[in-house]
Amino acid sequence: MKAHRVVVKVGSSSLTGDGGRISVTKMTALVRQVARLHQELNGQVVLVSSGAIAAGIGKLGWDRATCTMPEKQAAAAVGQQLLMSTYERLFAEEGIEIGQMLLTRSDIEDRKRFLHIRNTMTTLLHHGILPIVNENDTVAVDEIRFGDNDTLGSLVALVAEADQLILLTDIDGIYSSNPKHNPNAQKIEDVWTITDELERVAGSSESTVGTGGMRTKVAAAKIAVQSGIDVIVAASYTENVLLRVLNGERVGTMFHALPDHPSAKKSWIAFGSQAKGRVFIDAGAAKALSKQSGSLLMPGVIHVEGDFPEASIVELIAPDGHVLGRGIVNFSARDLSLLLQRRQFGESVHPDSEVVHRNNMMVFPLQSKSARPSQKSM
Known about the structure:
five-stranded mixed beta sheet, Archaeosine Trna-guanine Transglycosylase, Chain: A, domain 4, 2 domains, Carbamate kinase, eight-stranded mixed beta sheet, 13 helices
């Protein structure tokens, strides 16, 4: 395997049995494989694990379908302890120390906290300690209601500067349609470009314990591959699935990283941060950014939306309305609006003023819309 640092994400359905309770059998099989991966890669493995809410609900005997938000958070508080104590015991049998990291999306979005997380994770890996990451479901209301750990897995891969992300699920890859409904659905073995069509055909999971499906895995892969990280979606029930990936065997669906990928900082700007506003640009500026890798100068700005201070993350909007990219803006929304007003009244505005420097900008690649899935590749 060409990877030197790997993030493994495992979903709730891959850790629980009937009734949503933690399955020690499933966890034991997973831990043994992760331990082998940890040994082969000299400790360069991060585990992103779902299961806290499911474990808590199972232990408490509650019905997930009727749980309120506070009850889900309470279940997470109970289940996280159960999940980690089980992991600690099983990894101790393999001679591996573990460290727990509970994150929310806001932790990733704040640049300083992002860097602290990266430093902590790097230190754990340096000392051969296996980080186990989960969302802090006890406080992250939005993550429980809408989020999924597939996205967390891709963002953790950015934090860890990993080479490969393995998403373990209850289906053995991405299919051209939902294989549970269509017996003629074809598994896609390779994805070189994530097209609009692929995102449409990615079906939803019918799992009763997980919160995501194939759609979230494609979305997570989209983040990772644009950051230079290969992604494999495979079934956790496949015998020795992690070891087979380690040995270079083709299992599941492989999303190939883009060969020309941005720096770690630009990846964070694009995928880890939260945009505070929007800056609309003209056709000339859009061409300069996408074709010439230039900075965004004041003459290219035509409109501003939002109320943001300088050094905020903003979306850059092309004339046709699509998001061309993201960047760290050098002016506040108020100052940009004032400069636009001055220009409108004929006052001179310095043409070389950099609104967003090219080193602080991520321009997104154009999306393909016409490619169709096939059995062997996409």
